[in-house]
Amino acid sequence: MKERVVDDLSDLPLHGMGAASPTWWGTLAFMLIEGTGFALALAVYLYLMSIAPTWPLDAKQPDLLPGTVVTLLLIGSVVPNILVSRWAERRELRKVRIGMVVMSVLGIAPLIVRIFEFPALNINWDINAYGSTLWLLLGLHTTHIITDLVDTLVLGALMFTRHGDNRRRYGDVQDNAMYWNFVVLAWLPIYAFIYWIPRL
Amino acid sequence: MRNGNKVREQHDTDLERPALEAALAHTWRTPAGLWGALTTVDHKIIGRRYIFTAFVFLALGGVLAALMRLQLAQPEARVMGPDRYNQIFTMHGANMMFLFAVPVMEAVAVYLVPLMVGTRNIAFPRLNAFSYWIYLAGGALLWIAFAIDMGPDVGWFAYVPLSGPQYAAGKRADIWAQMITFTEVSALAVAVELVVTIFKQRAPGMSLDRIPLFVWAMLVTSFLIIMAMPAIMVASTSLILDRLVGTHFFNPAEGGDVLLWQHLFWFFGHPEVYIIFLPAVGMVSTMLPTFARRPVFGYLALVMALIATGILAFGLWVHHMFVTGLPRLGESFFTASSMAIAIPAGIQIFCWLATLWDGRPVYRTPLLFVIGFIFTFTIGGMTGVMVASVPFDTQVHDTYFVVAHFHYVLIGGAVFPLLGAVYYWFPKITGRMMSETAGRWAFWLIFIGFNLTFFPMHILGLQGMPRRIYTYQPDLPWHGLNLFVSLSAVILTAGFLVFFIDAIRSGRRGVPAGDNPWNAPTLEWATSSPPPPYNFARIPVVGGSNPLWEQPDTLAVASGLRTHRREVVVTTLTTARPEARESSPRNSIWPLLAAIATTIMLIWSIFSPWAVVWGSVPVAVALIGWFWPKRTPEDEA
């Protein structure tokens, strides 16, 4: 087939940021998948609650302290997270490096508190269906934190190498920050379900 | 830019056509040999593999169906015992749904969507390679387990308590549940790739109202996959947890509930039907105009019907559970929504009929399958409206009436268009035409064989024959029709044999096809058959929804891409205005390594929960290797 050139694209950037980047859209799509998974796990919780005679089922209410500490840590981490994203947008390498170290620490901290959160549920997964849903919710979210922490650690290390000062990496840092916001956001309903619905 | 290193910064405008093609072929090539095969990220090679593998599973599932018909041909037959029969009907259903129907539709899309939207590779091509390996591993898991008498035997929807720890000892149910994980991971990966390809990699000018209808159908389907498949993953994971570590999600004695399984399963399972059906109607809407020789009638109505079907698909799941004693208000709601889905289906059928009516139809094999589809699917749709009614459903639930209904919907609604699509796109994929004579034989044998096989099952169901029985007694009034059904299945099998032989023979010795043998209007026909590794030497610029009919002799294209790295055009979501020249990843072995690590973890976790902890370490290592920058030109920004 003959061709007729009607447009010249040689002035376009070699990589788009934000909504011009396929990776950004891919991250959104994975958030939609995981968000649906969380919503369904919460639906399982509500379903089992709706057929249970009492709730919590044959167990003490979960202790508030560790879960609340995790919540505060996660909410607090949003501020430096937004700053890292902003620095990445302005391509300030030194600040991004510091920010990634801070975010790595802020990813590890809630995991340490979470070690105390599982016993504070006051029930094991194999006692009854109520215990099973609690462990499912907390397990899912712990996996969520670990996944993003590993991502943050690897990306943080990458920023200290010669590959760091690259628009592509800054885009990755921004997507990683967006994902961490999602990790925090996803926790809030789970926290309300685990700790506050049994207190209603 | 251009006065720097000339080779590194080379643009397509610097090169004459033959040199341009050579440069692009070098940049985008898949090396010959085993290493090339294991590392390729070319959507066409992976799409071909996907399609081939899915058809192998179709053939295997067909063999199982034939065995069932052999067993049921006469009362008290002794071809196999009940345990083997349970495994075979479970394998048949699970195989056809999870290893054939969904993957084959995604496979066709993996091959065609990038070509139809005018780009050079699918978005996230390494994820695409990974998804194929995971799919292959999931299929191998199911069939190897079956070969060593460990095949699942709890039905394709694995209802608890039958599939729970109390009634399903051994690992058969776990094989089913973990096969689900494999296939859902691969399906979700492809869905994400398709959404991003369709959103961001469309040719300049291909605004939302110019997207080919198959691509629209795949977009809606991908969103259905994204929203529905997490439900089955939550379900199968909780089932494995119940079986492996003693959780109680489905154990009524400890506050769990068996109906929870059915809700989770069908919240996925009903959209699943549309995940299979919507790509098929997209194929029909794309093939029909080519053979009717006019643009499709009611483009907007067809797009709206696709979206409406996609939304309604999530409001139907309870109609699979009408006999479980749900509240009457709920049953009425789901009856209404189930009947409502006949509206978008009807709109599509009338648009197709109008296209044919106003066109000058050329009755080639693909069109025969399309017409066979319209006829068969309409019957399946009508029995669907019947079983949407609670009293009728209560009568025929778990009988052969339902078996007849869903085979009409799935074979009539999806396999017929798919076979038509194979005849239609085979020349693009292989460069050779399939035989028109063999195609007509295949169509008529399959069409007649199908109707003779499955129509009598409606009657058997009304006569009370339950599904999933391995035999029946001679004094029951079913044996005449059962023998008739089994004999008709021979005709159906013969039709598929003709199809398979024709495909294999034409692949080697078919008549060379040329770029556009059907004189079709969409972009995949603007490049050679089979397409070069880079798909398009210059990216097409689109000014309408039937570009090759609107500009029959010359194709409007854009220039200015670099040739020394893999480059695609990223465009805006709605109007497809170019906004970046994005790079596309090179070939890599890491997706295969990541798939192997994931496979080890998933299979190991059937036996020990610690597999998730230790098995995830190699997965993480593989993913880091995958994403670590390699200083290629693709990493420039």
Please tell me about this protein's structure:
- The complex is a heterodimer of chains A (about 200) and B (about 625).
- Chain A has helices spanning about 20-50, 65-90, 95-120, 130-160, 165-195, and one strand at about 1-10.
- Chain A has about 200 residues and is mainly alpha-helical.
- Chain B is mainly α and about 625 residues long.
- Helices cover about 65% and strands about 5% of the residues of chain B.
- Chain B contains 19 helices and 4 strands.
- Chain B has helices at about 15-30, 35-40, 45-70, 80-115, 125-145, 170-200, 215-245, 260-290, 300-310, 330-340, 340-360, 365-385, 390-395, 400-430, 435-460, 480-510, 545-550, 590-605, 610-625, and strands at about 540, 555-560, 565-570, 580-585.
- Mean pLDDT of chain B is about 95; it is low at about 1-5.
- The chains are: A mainly alpha (about 200), B mainly alpha (about 625).
- At the A-B interface, strand 1, helix 1, helix 4 and helix 5 of A face helix 6, helix 7, helix 8, strand 2 and strand 4 of B.
- Strand 1 of chain A pairs parallel with strand 2 (about 555-560) of chain B, so a sheet runs across the interface.
Output the number of helix runs of chain A.
Answer: 5
Overall geometry of chain B comes to: globular
Number of helices of chain B: 19
Helix/strand order of chain A, N-terminal first: EHHHHH
The chain-level mean pLDDT of chain A equals: 96
Q: Percentage of helical residues of chain B?
A: 55-70%
What structural class do the secondary elements of chain B suggest? mainly alpha
Would you identify the regions of chain B where 5 or more consecutive residues have pLDDT less than 50?
Answer: 1-7
Cα-atom radius of gyration of chain B: 25 Å
Q: Strand percentage of chain A, roughly?
A: under 5%
Q: Which stretches of chain A are poorly predicted, pLDDT < 50 over at least 5 residues? A: none
**Biggest sheet record of chain A:** none
Largest sheet of chain B: 2 strands, antiparallel
Q: What Rg of chain A, in angstroms, do the CA atoms define? A: 21 Å
Q: Could you state the oligomeric state of the chains shown?
A: heterodimer
Strand content of chain B: under 5%
Order of helices and strands of chain B: HHHHHHHHHHHHHHHHEHEEEHH
Number of E strands of chain A = 1
Distance between the termini of chain B: 13 Å
- Terminal-residue CA separation of chain A: 70 Å
